[in-house]
Every structure is written in C-alpha cells, then in structure tokens.
Amino acid sequence: MLFDLIISRLENALPHAAEINPKVSKRGVDWHLEHCLKIINAICQTAAESKPADYKPKFTLTKYYILWTGKIPRGKAPSPKLFNNKETIDVSTLPGRLEEVKVSLTLLSGLNPKQHFRHPFFGDLKLSEAKKFIVIHTSHHLNIIDDILKC
Question: Which domains does the chain have, with CATH numbers?
C-alpha cells in the first residue's frame, strides 16, 4: 500500500521521541512526529468532508515543483499555526495518534477523486495530490528525524 512505508517509519521513530539535535532542527523528534500525525489526520478528515463540486484547482509553481520532485526544501516554509505546537509534547499520546492515522488513511480509499484538501499555500489538492502530499510531507519530516538520530 502507498502508506505502508511511512507508517512503518513513524512506528520506528516513536521510541526515539525524546531525542533532539539543535544542529539539525530546532524541534525534537517528538515535535516532528506529532506534527506529521496531526497533518495526516487533518488532510484525511478534510478530504473526507470535502464536496467534489467545491474543488477548484490552482496553479502554483511551488505546488507543482514539490509534487513533481517529491521533495520539500528544508527551512523554506513555516508550519501553519494550528500545526506548529510550541508547547511540550506529551509523548505518551503519540502511539494513539499513530493508530488514529492508520484509520484515517483507510478512509481515503473510498473517496471520490475530486474530493480534496485545501492546502494553505497550494490551494486545493485533489485526492491523488493529497495522497502524494501526505507521503512527501511525512517523508520530509522523517528524513529530518533520521538526521537528528544520526548525530
């Protein structure tokens, strides 16, 4: 399945939630994990609740660059305030959030292709783009986690 690898990588990172390396990221592994889990759940929920008739594609060079290359440049875009927790992360909640993500991702398979997620910078991402963005965004943060743990 499309999401199996990222789920596996998220599960493997959970035991390292307390790790931090300011040379790599101002945020610790816990923050990156929570951020990813919140984003995935939000995308899935928003897509499931969206109305296909409301889908309005928007061309942005950045959106197509990221979807085409599969990469998000580090440190170039701020996290939306809703997903940028600056408080202490309760790592005991992360396994439960991961289980929620697993359920949320299964919802996507039954949706209309025009159901969508409205990204704050890219505009509407149709279902296929939203799925791809989940993988790209999560992989971006998992790569940061890998770099935190290497040092």
Answer: 4-150 (1.20.120)
